[in-house]
Amino acid sequence: EYANEHSKFIEIDGMQVHYRDEGKGFPIVLVHGTAASLHTWDSWTQELTKNYRVIRMDLPAFGITGPNKTADYSIKAYTDFLHEFLTKIKVDTFHLAGNSLGGNIAWNYAAEYPKKTAKLILVDASGLPTNKPQPAIFKMAKTPLLNSLFLYVTPKFFIKKNMQEVYGDETKITDSLVTRYHKMALRDGNRQAFIDRAKVDFKLDSKANINKLKSIQTPTLLIWGAKDSWIPLDNGKRMDSILPNSQLVVLPNSGHVPMEENPEESLAILKSFLNFN
Fold this sequence. Notes:
The protein is α/β, with parallel strands linked by helices. 41% of the residues lie in helices and 18% in strands. It contains 12 helices and 8 strands. The protein starts with 6 loop residues before the first strand and ends with a helix.
């Protein structure tokens, strides 16, 4: 239901990774966040394929790709996965964009492979501690009994409630959008994978993260939703102050996923950064 004529599958570490490779031109790689899928980039892709080769994938634990048999959802594992994926499809130099968890993966990748990343785009990226309590869905995934219940009972209204936290304007949450996120969550193995992913503490060594961010010389665009309740704007400002070659653009009416919630506005910012008219 959620694959199309552009969908392809490639084997990595025993997983059949779902990805799409569309358009022609200089490659731009798009990496989604927690509990999302490559579909979160649909609007951007529709426009970017006019001038670029657009590559996006369902990360391990999410979308059609599903769980990693090793249940390793550390940033290192995700960065290694991205490197193996791009090596296998023979993409050497590219622009790299990531949202939330995908942004964390993207800046870690840029730090490790600076010659491969031409420009870096971070959309409400994770990787620095926040002053906010954890989102309810992460608390649930870490709580015994509740997470066991989640494995077997995942009502659609629960997914919608979670999306209302993510969006700045909940009137933009359509039934088809909720249905897509719900069905992806119900994919065999994804709920256990989400629980396993939620248990990983990405903030264990924030000093190391800061040092890694400081090392990134790649031209970097930070796009941040002012209404992001998961990773607040203060994090974007701090990340911008740490990165040596960055610019921060704030979207006043967006939440955590500006590329999905306000695609035209966020695309205009991206086009300017890429000098794409």
